[in-house]
Design brief:
Layout: E1 4-17, E2 20-33, E3 37-41, H1 48-55, E4 63-68, E5 71-72, H2 78-88, E6 89-93, H3 104-114, H4 119-132, H5 148-160, E7 166-170, H6 178-195, E8 198-203, H7 206-209, E9 214-219, E10 222-228
Parallel strand pairs: 3-8, 3-9, 6-7, 7-8
Antiparallel strand pairs: 1-2, 1-4, 4-5, 9-10
């Protein structure tokens, strides 16, 4: 039986620009189940990234509720939300967002430091995930010494290292060539399936949506269709 892990109930998001009101999300309803790979698919300006951001608690919604693990995250204080994100959520970014002065292994280790995991256990966890993403030989390299694909593998390792229940990915292959894109997508899916982790990914690319179990088509801030495989 499917177990809901994210529930989006009547969510709207309005941006105010001067006297203008821009409706980025319009009464959105969606359920994502534990272990599911969900793709939010749409063109630029469709509202897909806004939906991911409110789902992850990065942006405030205007109305409705976001329920993750049976908790309304939109009712949490900033401190509660920060602790919740550290404990349960991981993030993969299009621009990698690696710290240039740190090695690959040190970048991957950061979330574990914030979780106050002891150094010996941290090193073991980092080594395991670096092996899983195929970067065992690059652990001591800094971002400037790695290709875009290698940097994104570091980003994936950082997102998955603490075994978060949910990983949010915003156009994770947007800066990569076609071959590397397919390799990265296969890697994300493989790690998530192995650990029964939930993926919520934003993309405009129909080819990448094919990796998902659930494809949510978004247009003008509304869900126009949901495909389940």
């Amino acid at each position: 039986m499917s177990e809901p892990i994210i529930e989006i109930n009547n969510v709207s998001k309005i941006y105010k620009v001067g006297s203008e009101r821009i409706q980025a999300l319009d009464n959105v309803n969606l359920t994502i189940n534990k272990g599911e790979f969900c793709c939010l698919l749409g063109t630029s300006g469709s509202g897909k990234s806004t939906l991911l951001n409110v789902m992850a608690g990065i942006e405030k919604l205007s109305s409705g509720d976001i329920i993750i693990r049976n908790r309304k995250i939109n009712k949490m204080s900033e401190r509660q939300l920060s602790i919740f994100r550290q404990k349960y959520l991981g993030f993969i970014f299009q621009a990698y967002n690696l710290i240039a002065s740190l090695t690959a292994a040190e970048n991957v280790e950061l979330p574990l430091i914030f979780k106050e995991i002891v150094p010996k256990k941290r090193r073991k966890m980092v080594k395991e995930i670096m092996n899983a993403v195929g970067l065992k030989e690059r652990a001591k390299h800094k971002p400037s010494q790695m290709s875009g694909g290698q940097q994104q593998r570091v980003g994936i390792a950082r997102a998955f290292v603490g075994a978060p229940e949910i990983v949010f990915a915003d156009e994770p292959t947007g800066n990569l060539d076609s071959k590397t894109t397919m390799e990265i997508m296969a890697l994300i899916k493989e790690i998530a399936k192995k650990n029964n982790q939930t993926i919520v990914m934003v993309t405009h690319d129909v080819r990448l949506a094919e990796f998902a179990d659930k494809i949510v088509n978004i247009h003008d801030g509304k869900i126009v269709s949901v495909e389940e495989k």
